[in-house]
Amino acid sequence: MDEERPASEQDWTLKVVSSIHRIAPADWDACVGIDTPHYNPFVRHAFFSALEDSGSVAADAGWQPQHMVLEDHTGRVVACAPVYLKSHSYGEYVFDWGWAEAYQRAGGLYYPKLQCAVPFTPVTGPRLLVRADADAQTRRKLQQALLAGMVELAQRLKVSSLHVTFAEETEVDLMTEAGFLPRIGEQYHWKNEDYASFDDFLGALSSRKRKTIRREREVANSHGIAIQTLTGDEIKAHHWDAFFGFYINTSDRKWGQAYLTRKFFDLLGARMGEAVVLVMGEQSGRFVCGALNLRGGDTLFGRNWGTAVEAPMLHFEVCYYRAIDFAIAHGLAWVEAGAQGQHKIQRGYLPRPTFSAHWIRDGGFQEAVAQFLERERVAVAHNIEALAEFGPFKKLDN
Questions:
Q1: How many CB atoms lie within 10 A of CB 99?
Q2: DSSP assignment of 263-309, as one string?
Q3: Is this prediction's pTM over 0.90?
Q4: Does residue 70 contact residue 80 with C-beta atoms inside 8 Å?
Q5: Residues 180 and 202 in one domain
Q6: In this structure, are 54 and 172 located in the same domain?
Q7: Rounded distance between C-alpha atoms, residue 43 and residue 82, angstroms
Q8: What phi and psi, each to the nearest 5 degrees, are found at residue 307?
Q9: Fewest CB within a 10 Å sphere: which of 50, 56, 98, 174?
Q10: How many domains does the chain divide into?
Q11: Inside any domain, residue 341
């Protein structure tokens, strides 16, 4: 059920809406900053609508939309946030299964919970979306109003907890001030140091690592598989048919559950095809592998991968090296290659922290989680620092 109420003395009205379609695309996207240098494609109205309209996200799938929208006195949308009422912890990639088990062993009900996130997408990006024309002071107040609204909704629904995952660090700082518990994780990202070509990037590596990557690319391209990078209208239904098969195959092997439906990929291509970068491999007239990426303002985001063949080094070429090629060619500053995988370090993808924040309704349980997260933050920070030393880049003399 959609609801609204006054949000603050600023004469803002807070609405909780049960579908992304309750907000006009232009109103939501005005808070995304599509024309800004760091725009993130995953928080666009088109992405959330593709999830909902394809049935990938719905109440019966355990993701019930409860999106937050702030309007000013004229009815103009000035801020918003993607929020879901969840009955499980699947599709999040910031793992709280242990928390749920502990709380339920103690006699509590961990589910349902609230989740502010992009479903099935372990990609850092803004979660407290504010119009790009808001000044810094107004932006902060609007974000605080969104947070207060989320906490109020959590209290009213009597859920165990509220989780904001893969948020920007500055947002988590604000949440920490509001009493949320901060958490850090790690991913592996490639940084473009204004490289003119892939060989230019290789020149920044140690000799041994440079030779290793060149050999991997040679092997990957020796299997008779023609690899092409497709964008926009170049991507047709038969590409999505093949890629969906790869996606299902990977899901069956890794997770046992495919979150995204076939229809989602058609809608993604139709509604935001200009942001899609699809790398496909073809052999003997059939597609045998593929990697899905989305392009943002300054970053290429790697999302899903799958293959129907066993070919040495093919995964590295299609997922990592072709992404670097694309980023260099299009002047993008970063490639984010998704969750997990220390093997990415030797390919130039170095560890970086990711951030989330967690509000726990039960005071005793909150204290237990806080103690756990304090220890975990120290361990993760040390791990990131240690892993960075194993990068392939030349060591600079002090």
A1: 21
A2: HHHHHHHHHHGGGEEEEEEEETTEEEEEEEEEE-SSEEEEEEEEESS
A3: yes
A4: yes
A5: no
A6: yes
A7: 8
A8: -150, 155
A9: 98
A10: 2
A11: no
